[in-house]
Amino acid sequence: MDNLDKLDMSILREMQKNGRITITELASRVGLSKTPCQVRVKRLEELDYIQGYTAIINQKKLGASHIAFVQLTMNDTKTKALRAFNDAVREIPEVEQCHMMAGNFDYLLKVRTTSIESYREVLGEKISNLPHVKQTSTFAVMEDIKDIASKEL
């Protein structure tokens, strides 16, 4: 860490709650005046603590309400095979997240589709055909309880 103090951490927390907050409101919430707050935000951006700003989309309104987590085991875990898998999985739009894991499986994927039927198609036609995939196990989400990307923090 690059010597972040309590004010920097407060700024990050407030901006994570609302990335569109005005500098004036942010400064008020963290106990700074506008100019020092602006300088700190710019520094946090330059140091890559703030990597960008994005809109959180209500996927349910778009019809993409089915979420599944997929444990994936590879048949080859050498660097070249992992690189090939990583490059290919990035090309599947239904895969929202992909994490390499330590444990009994190699990757954990979060997959969002419109239905269980469309998920089955993504699994069979895309995920199972990724380079070096040996086995998958699916865990379907029954209810979203807490998601950092939702408004209910």
UniProtKB/TrEMBL annotation:
Q: Which InterPro entries match?
A: ArsR-like_HTH, AsnC-type_HTH_dom, Dimeric_a/b-barrel, Tscrpt_reg_AsnC-like, Tscrpt_reg_AsnC/Lrp_C, WH-like_DNA-bd_sf, WH_DNA-bd_sf
Lineage from the top down?
Answer: Bacteria, Pseudomonadati, Pseudomonadota, Gammaproteobacteria, Cellvibrionales
| Keywords noted in UniProt | Activator, DNA-binding, Transcription, Transcription regulation
Organism annotation:
Sessilibacter corallicola
Q: Which Pfam families match?
A: AsnC_trans_reg, HTH_24
Recorded protein name is: Leucine-responsive regulatory protein
Residues annotated as domain HTH asnC-type: 4-65
Cite the PROSITE patterns for this sequence. HTH_ASNC_2 (PS50956)
- Domain of life per record: Bacteria
